[in-house]
Fold Carbonic anhydrase.
Amino acid sequence: MRGGETHEPLPSIPSKFALVLLLVFYDFLVIAQNTFTPTERVKQRIQHGFEKFKQETFLRQPKLFREVAVKQTPKFMVIACSDSRVCPTTVLGFRPGEAFVVRNIANMVPPPEQAMIYPGTSAAIEYAVMVLKVESIMVIGHSRCGGILALMTQKENVKRSVFVEDWIQIGLAARTAALKAAADKDLEQQCTMCEKESINLSLSNLLAFPFVHDAVMNGNLTLHGGYYNFVEGSFEYWLYGADGKTGAHSRF
């Protein structure tokens, strides 16, 4: 310091800003430390993700987490694809306890007559409607779905997988409808058509479950379709009526 010069003390960093800096620095460390073994990297990523969630969400919403610790009362059930790019909680901003979520290949719902063949999704639907008493079920499809691409390019008597090709047979009616409606289109456009057709097929299969149909007819449950396009960053929504007809589509 030169003679006669004075320096004002550095301003204190707000605790929130300090936390952000700490998290950013921690992100950098996790990325930079390539000396971790694959197993250690998994642990570090999980630890970092949880600590970030705890600091930014869990500790900042004590009332919410006290409530959900007692019981869950979700208003929504969401049936979505397992694709890593289309997490419905992230895309639609659901809070903890707000949505009961089921994810599978190509967001498919088996018809009731196949419920015992594919009991996982069917059991979740039964639990959501009969026990949790959800008020709305939404089936969400998405752009560039690998399951739909597999369905659209499936060849007779050619087995490319053990389980996937059996599962996507649920969507054969959607494939047929898409090929008919988009016969003169290229594969990508046909897949887009099938992605949307499969949503309505899943909604139709949902409505065929007696307990779902009864809840809809009694006014206790509504069915909805959604299509997330992560290429354009858009979301298409429509209501699926008790008569099996779709309402007007809204685009966000």
